[in-house]
Amino acid sequence: MMKSLMIAAVLFFTSLSTAVRANDLTEFDYPLLLGDWYWFSNTDEGVQSEGASYRAMNIKFKSNYRFVIRLLQVDGSVDEWDGIYDIDETTITFSSYDQPEQHHSYMLSYNQFMLDGARFTKLAPENLPGNWRSSQISGQDVGESVSELAISLRPDFLFSAEVSGKNGKKIEHRGIYFIEDDRIVLIYEDGQHDSQFQLGSDTLTLTNKQFGMEAIMVRE
């Protein structure tokens, strides 16, 4: 019945989510900020700033309010610094021991970040985007009710997930995902869930050690 499949789907996603704790990614106030953001100059000459010409810029934001900034110069050299950041609805502040404090206005979406008018794009890890289908699902309760899981992870950080029950019924979720280190969070209309992942060239393994859950996915 549809009701039993809905319960199984909730169990599946809940089992893949980690227990609530202080560093739970689902509790971070600005989850769409997390990840690697890239800006690229549209000319070979780059953009001039303080006597240097820059071709690209990468900003990594972490949930512990740490950041790393890397600037690629036209001559191939890289400037790098890190520190802590503070953020509210309109302004982000970078603080570093060897740099003056910087205040910048910003606008943010799930895959675009405007920093003082400069447009940054978020990039996913290589091989993560694609269509994945489960080859094996293990875990108490879930394994008894769910026959298959299919997840489509798009390069622009949108996803769709379909849970198929052994009774032939299906439940679908659509939303936004973000990642940090080996953790992936799916945000959809009814909630959000955090799980660990391990990525191979053609396999994606989702696990939760606390609940003994594992879903091995293969690329379609």
Describe the protein's architecture and organization.
- The protein is mostly beta strands and 220 residues long.
- The chain folds into two domains: 2-28 and 127-219, Lipocalin (Beta Barrel), CATH 2.40.128.280; 31-122, Lipocalin, CATH 2.40.128.280.
- Helices cover 9% and strands 57% of the residues.
- The chain is built from two helices and 17 strands.
- It has helices at 2-16, 142-145; strands spanning 35-40, 47-49, 52-61, 66-73, 78-87, 91-96, 99-108, 112-115, 118-122, 130-138, 146-153, 158-165, 170-180, 183-188, 191-199, 203-208, 213-219.
- It has an eight-stranded antiparallel barrel. An eight-stranded antiparallel barrel has the order 10-11-12-13-14-15-16-17.
- Strand 12 (158-165) and strand 13 (170-180) form a beta hairpin.
- The radius of gyration is 20 Å and the shape is elongated.
- Mean pLDDT is 84; it is low at 1-11 and 14-22.
